[in-house]
Amino acid sequence: MLAAACAFAAMLAGGWWLSNRDRGVAITTSAVAAVRDIDPPLAAAVSAGASTSSAGSRADSLRDTDVDGAVRVDAQGRPQPDRELRRLFDYFLSRTGEQTPEAIRVALIAHLQPRLAADALATVVAWFDAYVALERDSVIAGHEAGDMEAAVARVRSLRRARLGAELAQAWYGEEERAYDDALARRRLLADRSLDEAMRARRLAELDARLDPQRQALQAQSQELESAVQQSRDFESGQVDAATRYAEREALFGREAAQRLAQLDTRKAQWQDRLRRYAAQRQRLLADTALSDSQRRQRMASLLQGFDANERRRVDMLTRNGLLPGP
Length: 326
Known about the structure:
By secondary structure, this protein is mainly α. The protein has 15 helices and no strands. It is about 70% helix and about 0% strand.
């Protein structure tokens, strides 16, 4: 069971993107008009989109791939806030680091404009802007929170503040329910005021409310939370790798201990890469011999060592001053 939880943790750490062949959407006159109606400052950027797209295509990770995700509308043409829409946003955001946030937003609008009426387009773009703000603020919340429970609570609050209750429920409701179930179980197990019979009865009542799928999600969430907290304790105590492995094997089994050790390695490698990037970026910023154009080109080349998901994380860390020091 923890093997699945470890895989989930790795997925959260690195993200995932599916494919698209619809990279080079033509920027039409009607698309320019739609952007002008929604966001006048971007109209000029859309007008220049064809040349920008051609210049940036050499570093486009979405070239020759199919757009992942879609916008579904109801009988009245109103967009539906489902997971397919979130997948579509993630697809376009995978260009982070290759293109500016404004260019990514323009490309999304150009993709949507032939498919949606003006009101529906405005709604979807507003949702996209809220989603981008949520991702940015969630990175900060995760860094500032003292423990996993606090981080989850802060991110959950941010979801509702940025997206509203309906969107937050549609996009995150299932995973939040699984987390709540795991948290309720953990609290029951830790409640010293309960005798064993009462604890067993309450746990049985909790399990009875879950269907088999939610039971599996709940168990994975509980084990993942336990493993994450243990890893944080190891890091704060600077526990060596051999001790970590032994304690994890005793609690979770050999396969899970191996997976968690691999995650430790990947995390350390990621931090090393971030430190190197931050140092190289600082040197470029300090190099007064470079023109603005040269500096931008070299900054972009620094990001080529990261994949699309990693670029999103690096971009958010950079924008919020969260890159590691030397």
